[in-house]
Amino acid sequence: MNIDSFIETLALGVARERILSSDAARAPYECDGLTMFRVRPKLVVLPETTKEVSHVLKTCKAAGVPVVARGAGTGLSGGATPHADGVLLVMAKFNRIVAVDPLARTARVEPGVRNLAISEAVAPLGLYYAPDPSSQIACSIGGNIAENSGGVHCLKYGLTVHNVLAVTVALDDGEVVTFGSDAPDSPGLDLLALIIGSEGLLAIVLEVTVRLLPKPEETKVVMASFDDIEKAGAAVSAIIARGIIPAGLEMMDKPALAAVEDFVKAGYPLDAEALLLCEVDGSVDEVADELAKVEQVLRDGGATELRIARDDAERLLFWKGRKSAFPAVGRISPDYYCMDGTIPRKHLAKVLKRMAEMSTEYGLRCANVFHAGDGNLHPLILFDANVPGELERAEAFGAAILELSVEVGGTITGEHGVGLEKIDQMCAQFSSAELAQFHALKAAFDETGILNPGKAVPTLNRCAEFGHLHVHHGELPHPELERF
Amino acid sequence: MNIDSFIETLALGVARERILSSDAARAPYECDGLTMFRVRPKLVVLPETTKEVSHVLKTCKAAGVPVVARGAGTGLSGGATPHADGVLLVMAKFNRIVAVDPLARTARVEPGVRNLAISEAVAPLGLYYAPDPSSQIACSIGGNIAENSGGVHCLKYGLTVHNVLAVTVALDDGEVVTFGSDAPDSPGLDLLALIIGSEGLLAIVLEVTVRLLPKPEETKVVMASFDDIEKAGAAVSAIIARGIIPAGLEMMDKPALAAVEDFVKAGYPLDAEALLLCEVDGSVDEVADELAKVEQVLRDGGATELRIARDDAERLLFWKGRKSAFPAVGRISPDYYCMDGTIPRKHLAKVLKRMAEMSTEYGLRCANVFHAGDGNLHPLILFDANVPGELERAEAFGAAILELSVEVGGTITGEHGVGLEKIDQMCAQFSSAELAQFHALKAAFDETGILNPGKAVPTLNRCAEFGHLHVHHGELPHPELERF
Questions:
Q1: What is this model's ipTM?
Q2: I want to staple B279 with a disulfide (CB 3.0 to 4.6 A). Which of A8, A449, B221, B391 is the partner?
């Protein structure tokens, strides 16, 4: 395909100034939040209307050109890493809040709207949007849909998939369809849930209806210090076992605390081996009751110090520390690698202990920050890419953590997605029959494979090379599905 | 295909005595809970093991024989209506609770386990399984998965899809795969959510991991009488608007109350135009606080009488009335037709008023029983099939209710599924592009269309005949997808 004639065709349906082809214009789009992968896209297109998106898709499908959608570019698994021969579809101009219905408690928004902007817009109505990734100031709701994003409050209020009622999407051929509805359930196959977390492989999101929640009457957070990380892990299980689902239940270990406190001055104790932040919300009575129970469980679990945020300002400061953990660690190490394994909560203590041993084995520091209540770990492996061998050791350490997660019955990703980063680990997570089913599904949406090729679901060939696939008599199962 | 040689082949992998071919043996399986559709299946097979299920599927796929799975046969939309030329796969022998993990709060069960049997088995651990369809004494968890079943407690605790962590299924070719995991989110496409509510079109469920919840410390129910059904509808919206998510929020109108009270003696007031049952659960303090708020909202909304169940026995009696509404109505009318439309909650009052008008227009009584908090209506249209024209009027009245539901932004089914019953209304609910996408998905799982053919998703041809499809230049869109 001739690039000039391709641009001509695109320009029949999209304003020419929003098709970026110069090196300078394309450079800022080389990577998303996973900066170790960098690819300059052939073209960057910034559509403004549904019609323009449909036109781009039709044109790309006809020419067999890959299309990668990008929201705010904050993703951590390379889901929006561009394709060198493809179009990067930047959805930033889809940034309108279309409608808010305070009675039905829903908002219809375009995919480029920032996560936090929704809660800000509906705050005067006493409402908010619950899923709150740490990047919520910047990340877009379209990206949240692609990754099924979580956040500190997802333990009680669910992931993106539990808080979205409907999506309107463009299919690979530009056709526009809507899945889900304002009603609690929708007839037909559940394509809404399928779209959420599909990492740009199935369709391009054009509009999203989210569920809003009433702001709780009262919110309190308690901070508990522990002199032993396994005790902190056990206390997490004990809180849940007591029948309490806190609004947030987060944990940080000593290296993470040191980095954060130096950066944010959140008032964290520097002598603790581990810190738990536990938030409870609800009516005034409910919060008082739950808080008393949580304090009791934490004391019984061996907490050395308990502090309840004295007011909302201090509460937000406690959370600011947690939410700033990634940049804080970035200040104390030239490089870091953030993992996202999720494990059954009951194995928390065991896995924490094993990770500490691995840290010694691989000779790399590791700061732990995680959604403890969910069992979603975010170990940050610290390394210096300029020291020969450290990057390789960091990658090996990371892979070992993910494989440990699968081994104890967990998964390789909690909320950051597979993207490019964890595609090999998918071979450890799934059987070839399961991967073949993913490919069949993908083909049902995008038979020619133009949408975000090479991401999220590995080909069976790739798994065979990675060494995890069972190959029978030298033949791959389902070779006809090796399309992507 | 010769039936005897087909049975021979089946018997290579399934004990002969569990392949039923005689008229007498097949007769009890002619219908599910939607008794107006009756079809005698060619064969009934009762497998006992995964290997047997795989063998049946492989054999049927090779011979092009349809397979319809059946749980307890309580479904209300004909999802398990047999196929005259097919095998009815009765999963009743898959009835073991395989494992309970009280710490992770999960249970692994086979699909034939009854919904209520799960809660009974884990009651000694202080746990229960939340989704509670009215048929929970009889219905199976496999059927709950097929229909994404709800129940009176789903307003607060979610539908089946929110309470299932993983499913192991057999695909059309007998291959066994697992979707989901014990972790809160799972990488890869969300095939777990896709399977749930897929009405037997995609796979046969072999094992289910469900989430268990701790039994609340306290549960209270308040019964509120209204002299006007629109006031009751408005009170439902007002409770939710007050920031309360009750554990259950159910409504019955006067005809339903009369039928139920006569049958169950639940102590319902017979002079009320509408009754609300509102349950709150949680800690003792939380319940006291929420109950006070609910009472206030109900009083402000014009409730003429409020009664709080004085003990657990009375509370269960209040609910027994609600859960017995269908059989109660069966006692006062030779026939009834139960609808399952779902509407945005804010339109409750308006839709109730319109349904009362329709009742006059069609000359048929209608008793209303519904999950008011969810906006999920269960109008029971009373008729006598022996009176010429009444069945047709009942069907027309029902269709009009469903179309009204779609018109106000709702859907044609809340929890009973589409099955055979509402397949034409799917043409009103979805565009041809959306239906084509459902067909593509179906083909990705079951290319030859042997699993539950003719259910849930109408062919585009059928929609064209039904008069709802936009046909362009006399040609159907996507004729290549007209497979099922």
A1: 0.72
A2: B221
